């Protein structure tokens, strides 16, 4: 049973469904204090977490919707009152054939076209468990645990590591007051990942948030909290390039990363949302002295995305590196970019943004680089490249620079171009057909991100873009 | 063996009221021959090259471009006699490439993010694939389409197409050809033409021809912007195309210089969209000494 079905059922029937199935707690439509209390109770949360949720709810109710940013995506169809904020999937009943068949056809088609075997498809879509992965994961988990690394579901972390979660959860990086959707997230968040890396520990293999898709199921409001202690190192990979299917139409995740002195965190994500989804997320890292944060993200799918991963460079010598890629097809508006606050001397940041638009799709780069009064010797370099397929598609670059310190080095470069006819002809004259030529040009265009990703993600990202370009995804 | 035949070729810039550039070009280039096409700027040399390759910026208003192939080469494909003659104007640029037409660009495109090795292997496989398709009957076509419908295995393993040149096999081919052209190994992993010097780009065009093994290579001012060492390398490459692969070469050039290294069998002079004079190597020397004005005078006096 999909959540659409749930939404369509009237209140009474829903209660009956609840009684019969005992499968899921289903919150009332819309967002009330009662809903928030119910979520918290269902998760058996400590009092402090409930308080945080309620505070966030207050902020959410008071904040206006963002409406007046230049060129921002139209959010007038986002009706939180109509959204079912919380469904706890029951693990026992998940993973059956029925769930797979309930996936939207376009998602099923995509998996087919990606050539992913059935079992893997189910795991990726969250409707089945991939047992072999589970074993591999278990082995790795033991290895991490021996070193004191914690990697678990966020809900569980609230229970098992309350002291750490209480200190960091939506206190400094993404407070509910940050924006309306951060506040919404704070009130109804559910699921997500918790990663803790002790001082001096390097986690060699990338940690992939793969397992949680086949256990608790992905919430629409999942929270990721990564704490990397001094001189530690970790590469975290969120989601995967397989489509994230949202049967409700709002995804509002929160990501908080704490990079302590000399630590290094890489956060990579490639996400492809179904095309009726509003994808409105808040992601922020606090980076201390000589720490290094790297954000690598690919945004595909969704009706509208607003996402600006940000780094606050808090200590001297802290650095940040952003690589983002966005793809907008027909009817899509992908508004994404990066924010960096240079709040200490000798901090460094680089932002590379790539966007592709096609068939009237719209991409925006929206960026903010803030150089504080104490950022002497800081430097930043921003590079935005937009590639358009046709004259109907649009791409805007909106880089904001706030410079409060004179001893800084700021570079910005933006290019916007159509896929060049000469480039296509060159490749055709070497034997590639028109589609393959364009595909190769786009693959090259996004190569900076694909080379940073593990090979299987890179391959799937390329394949997904190829499918988008053929117009064969729903 | 193959012959490229241009007859009465007329072409204009493909837009309303576009300028007429080719005004009846007749030319025949056979395998193993080297033809030099010379002429002042604006006479239509580059347009001729682009029209042969199928550039969409030009519209053919009259005449034909035909490619005649020799059946002996296609024993493996059991090609019908009827399939040995192609009107290139009916074909897409990539189909022309598959039949053995190669265009060496004066200003090759720079494609960021696409490594030489990836590009060249893709191009070679695309060519083999297309070639097979062009010569297959319809039933086999349908079968090929079916094969193409998706990966049978995980995308990690990539598509399993028969007859494709694999990564390792290709590396060997590439290394050998690069060595012949005296190109540095690091070329293989650089992005296609991106940040290449003028000379490197030209060398790269010859390298591509060496790998794709065309029947006919049209090289558009392959000698421009080359220093003397590089000119030597490029010339050696062109000779190797002819001697080792039997490629027919149509060399477009302004200058005699490259012809000192690669002696042409035939020299043609183009003026105002037509070939007005043809001769042997001595014609190129005469042009070097005396420029194009005497040809113009001769042509107009005759007319």
From TrEMBL, chain A:
InterPro entries: Fe-S_cluster_assembly_SufBD (IPR055346), SUF_FeS_clus_asmbl_SufB (IPR010231), SUF_FeS_clus_asmbl_SufBD_core (IPR000825), SUF_FeS_clus_asmbl_SufBD_sf (IPR037284), SufBD_N (IPR045595). Coiled coil: none annotated. One of its GO terms (biological process) is iron-sulfur cluster assembly. This is Fe-S cluster assembly protein SufB. Residues 136-208 form the SUF system FeS cluster assembly SufBD N-terminal domain. Belongs to the iron-sulfur cluster assembly SufBD family. The gene is sufB. Residues 211-445 form the SUF system FeS cluster assembly SufBD core domain.
TrEMBL record, chain B:
Residues 135-161 are annotated as: Disordered. Keywords: ATP-binding, Nucleotide-binding. CDD domains: ABC_FeS_Assembly. It comes from the Archaea. The keyword ATP-binding applies. InterPro entries: AAA+_ATPase (IPR003593), ABC_transporter-like_ATP-bd (IPR003439), FeS-cluster_ATPase_SufC (IPR010230), P-loop_NTPase (IPR027417). This is ABC transporter ATP-binding protein.
